Amino acid sequence: MTTDTPDRILRLNTVLDRTGLSRATLYRKVQAGTFPKQIRIAVRCAGWRESAVNDWMRNPMFYEAKD
């Protein structure tokens, strides 16, 4: 039996809490391609897919963002 749970969208503060990164380090890693990119969910609102953050947390040293 498989469970098809929808991928949640995490906001910035949740991502910072889960990863332990600072805001500056998080955005620097996004620019370098070593952390998942945000997805736009409204004009002034963005977040990260929970599955992408979990992938990064499994192996942060060798993570490469997929385009």
Automatic annotation (TrEMBL):
InterPro entries reported for this sequence: AlpA, Prophage_regulatory_activator
Source species, domain of life: Bacteria
Annotated PANTHER family: DNA-BINDING TRANSCRIPTIONAL ACTIVATOR ALPA
Protein known as: AlpA family phage regulatory protein
Species in which this protein is naturally found: Sphingomonas populi
UniProt lineage: Bacteria, Pseudomonadati, Pseudomonadota, Alphaproteobacteria, Sphingomonadales
